[in-house]
């Protein structure tokens, strides 16, 4: 992540690159200011978004960009961890399940998250929290054919940021 900036410097600039199809129904887009890869999986009936951007406004921009890729509704959004560039866009997705590791809710209320929000000129009271917390795994149905398509999202109990690594060790 960017280092904190002095009051004389302007905050980082948010931007969203185009969605690129990697395989049929699997897309990636890069969100600035931290070059975060966002994921989009388009199933037969619904879609899944992975990570939500750096602010509620960028989350809305991401949501609009998803609608330009597919008319299939979002089944859910999954946030990989609490850092601002992955989770501050959650507010744009209040009408779908917002899934994250059980520590994300608390971490989004931390002094670190408040400092990131201030640096980005985001009101920390505008930040949304996950609506569904998981400790180890969950399955999200995003399409049906002869068998259901499940995406299993595995998240460890703890990692160096509390949510990043699947080995469960502190680093």
Sequence-ordered SSE layout with sheet pairings:
Elements lengths: L14 E2 L3 E4 L2 E7 L3 E7 L4 E4 L5 H14 L4 E6 L4 H4 L10 E4 L2 H4 L3 H9 L12 E3 L2 E8 L3 E7 L17
Parallel strand pairs: 5-6, 6-7, 7-8
Antiparallel strand pairs: 1-3, 2-3, 3-4, 4-5, 9-10
List keywords for this structure.
Metallo-beta-lactamase, Chain A; eight-stranded mixed beta sheet; 171 residues; 10 strands; disordered N terminus; disordered C terminus; alpha/beta; two-stranded antiparallel sheet; 4 helices
Briefly characterize the structure:
This protein has 171 residues and is of the alpha/beta class.
> Total domains, how many?
1
**Protein structure class:** alpha/beta
Mind summarizing the main beta sheet? 8 strands, mixed
DSSP strand content: 25-35%
Q: What is the name of the CATH class?
A: Alpha Beta
CATH topology, anyone? Metallo-beta-lactamase, Chain A
CATH superfamily: Ribonuclease Z/Hydroxyacylglutathione hydrolase-like
User: Can you give the helix content as a percent range?
Assistant: 10-25%
Order of helices and strands: EEEEEHEHEHHEEE
- Named at the architecture level, the CATH assignment is 4-Layer Sandwich
Gross morphology is globular
Separation of the first and last Cα atoms: 17 Å
- Count helical runs: 4
